[in-house]
């Protein structure tokens, strides 16, 4: 990366079929290998109950902080390409998946266009997003309040930390 025009971005990662920890680690390594992306920090892995459609396996979730020179739409395309390379098939909203990569926050930018809304429109309702995000960026301000403050309003019961730290993606899970 050139170091110019780099934006601090937070990505949410998750999956609940196959080997989601391996898929998320592979996704982070693939993103980090791109010349325009640098993975800066990754949360611990969390096992979380399903959200939306509850009759499915628990998810593993994590959040990553990256720096990128890409604009939001190009980063989204890179994330979607990474999901496809890992054999993600989009069948059912909130349904089972091998891997999911969402752009949560893109610097201070607000985006609302076809297929891309930033900040992520439901992130503040989801403990499985805010808990790992608060681990690596508790003072990040979203919608006028710190992430840690948003998290205080949510039920985190049933969410378990399953890795000691954020190095799980480097260790070849």
TrEMBL record:
Residues 93-104 form the 7,8-dihydro-6-hydroxymethylpterin-pyrophosphokinase domain. Belongs to the HPPK family. It comes from the Bacteria. Its EC number is 2.7.6.3. Catalyzes the transfer of pyrophosphate from adenosine triphosphate (ATP) to 6-hydroxymethyl-7,8-dihydropterin, an enzymatic step in folate biosynthesis pathway. It comes from Chelativorans salis. Keywords: ATP-binding, Folate biosynthesis, Kinase, Nucleotide-binding, Transferase. SUPFAM superfamilies: 6-hydroxymethyl-7,8-dihydropterin pyrophosphokinase, HPPK. Coiled coil: none annotated. One of its GO terms (molecular function) is 2-amino-4-hydroxy-6-hydroxymethyldihydropteridine diphosphokinase activity. This is 2-amino-4-hydroxy-6-hydroxymethyldihydropteridine pyrophosphokinase. Pathway: Cofactor biosynthesis; tetrahydrofolate biosynthesis; 2-amino-4-hydroxy-6-hydroxymethyl-7,8-dihydropteridine diphosphate from 7,8-dihydroneopterin triphosphate: step 4/4. The keyword Methyltransferase does not apply. Pfam families: HPPK (PF01288).
């Amino acid at each position: 990366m050139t170091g110019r025009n780099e934006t601090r971005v937070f990505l949410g990662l998750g999956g609940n079929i196959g080997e989601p920890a391996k898929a998320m680690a592979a996704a982070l390594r693939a993103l980090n290998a791109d010349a325009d992306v640098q993975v800066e920090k990754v949360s611990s892995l969390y096992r979380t109950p399903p959200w939306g459609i509850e009759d499915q396996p628990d998810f593993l979730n994590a959040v990553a902080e990256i720096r990128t020179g890409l604009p939001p739409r190009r980063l989204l395309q890179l994330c979607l390409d990474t999901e496809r390379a890992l054999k993600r098939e989009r069948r059912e909203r909130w349904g089972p998946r091998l891997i999911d990569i969402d752009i949560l926050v893109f610097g201070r930018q607000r985006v609302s266009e076809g297929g891309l809304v930033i900040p992520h429109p439901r992130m503040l309702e989801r403990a499985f997003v805010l808990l790992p995000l608060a681990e690596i960026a508790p003072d990040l301000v979203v919608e006028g309040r710190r992430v840690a403050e948003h998290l205080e309003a949510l039920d985190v019961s049933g969410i378990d930390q399953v890795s000691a730290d954020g190095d799980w993606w480097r260790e070849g899970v």
